[in-house]
Amino acid sequence: MENITTVKYQTAFTAFEALLKSLCLNDFPCGMGNWRENHKSKKKKIEHIDTIESKFSVTLKDYGVKHEKVDNLQELTKIKQSPWKEDYSWSDEAEDLRKFAIHSPWMLNEKFIFEFFKSLKISDKNIREIDAKMLLLTNLEQLTLTANHIQSIESHHLPKKLQVLELYANEISSLADLCSKPPPLLHLGLGRNIINTTDDYITGGFWPNLLSLDMSFNDLSDLHDIIGKLQTLPKLRNLILQGNPISLIPGYRGYTIDCLRKLAYLDDRPITADEKHHFKGLSRRGESVLNEANFDFDVSYIKNIPIPDEVKEPENFPEYPKIIRNYFVQFTFLKQESSGADVLEIMDDDDISTNKPSFRDSEADDEQLTSRQQSSMGHSVLAQSPVIIQSPIQENVEDGTTHVKSSKVPWAPGELMIEWKDTIARDDLLSLRNFLTKEMNVELVEEKILAYPPEMEDEIETGSMRSDSKKKDKNKTKPDKRDHKVYIKARNHHQHIGLIHIILYIIIFCYIYTNKPFCMNVKYFIYIIYIVIVYNY
User: Fold this and answer.
1) What distance in Å separates the CA atoms of residue 484 and residue 426, rounded to the nearest whole number?
2) CB contact at 8 A, 152 and 175
3) For the region Disordered, what residue ranges are annotated (predicted)?
4) Which of 3-12, 35-44, 241-250, 312-321 has the lowest mean pLDDT?
5) Which of 221, 348, 496, 498 maximizes the CB count within 10 A of its CB?
6) Which domain holds residue 392?
7) Are 493 and 450 within one domain?
8) pLDDT digit string (tens) for 391-421?
């Protein structure tokens, strides 16, 4: 029986209180415990000599156990092997606060502690929301809540002095709540969320002081829209958009650099003066930067193909049919859903030019044999003694992919020179990005063709035609029995009417010419029976 674990979510302030409790500010070696050196006892007057003798009769070791000095207490929190050393990585002020709790513990109170913190880094604590209690941290300037489950940010719950807000790897899809009353942020980190549009929330009207913006690994697919919004940020100097579908567009970096002339860093890479000069004017030709991605496929040769059995041992095979083996490389790639997409030449940001479309989705043959070999896209595909497996190749796979196939070459000893290149374009950038995060299959395919002489082909065709005709005869639909019965009944009804007329004619004839009843004339009765029998058959 499977154990279902439920995730217990908490607020940001609850997680902060748990980390604050781990500092043990009121426990040894911090706080006002009896382990501290009692300064007030020094001020007491010594009244009797017995008191002096009793004081010096205690050894230094025994005295130190009860009265630890401040320096020794602080040393216990620094030694790596010390059981009193705690983790201070969640705040730059955590270690200083603990030192303060050792040196001057009488000054600690709730307000002092909350105002002491200027930075918090709370990661992977199942935080669902930023609650209003975070406003108690009045001096907080940096808040990092990465790898949690935050879906929306209430801006009126953020401290007013906040300058850095890092929300990497959460579940944020909309920025509407964040922009209701935003604090004067200098850095906003929204990477690894599920944001597919910024609407009008990432603009200079909401973030006039923003210097750095991280929106990496989201679902942004419209390059012109997002860059148009970012152009309104007057102080933006650092921008991270890598991992978004728009980063797959050729010319993405050049177009972004030319549109945002004040940027100093793009995707964690410094922007040089040469880049700015090289891409100058590209923003005015925005129509040449399409929202689609281009990919080059290049296969030069295949080697290490095993020798076919009919070549290795021809005596074990009949003269006919002749076996012809062709080989090609097949890539599983994303299927193009939309139509009318232009195909551009694969390029870096150094060159932006159009090229003739050369995309080809080859159709699958029925009699193909596949050999699955993991390989990388490059100048050669190596087959390390592939094992040929009989498996039909399907053109359209259920998961929305198709097959891109190289040109075919017949088997030959040594290397098989293919010299094939192709460029394809895809405009569904979000599906393409998701596809590229998975494994892409590369297959070495063997096509087997059986060749016969003309006379054998006629026999094979004749035999196939006979078998087809037999199948057609078997597949003929039988008439409906109910309709057939209706037809027979109608036919018998007409026969019955005609026979009555004949009998009446004969009876009238016999009565006229013999003047006797019909039943008394046996001879004519036999004639009538004979006529009826003949008529029925």
Assistant:
1) 60
2) no
3) 354-380, 459-484
4) 35-44
5) 221
6) 294-352+359-419+436-455
7) no
8) 333 455 567 888 899 999 998 888 899 999 9
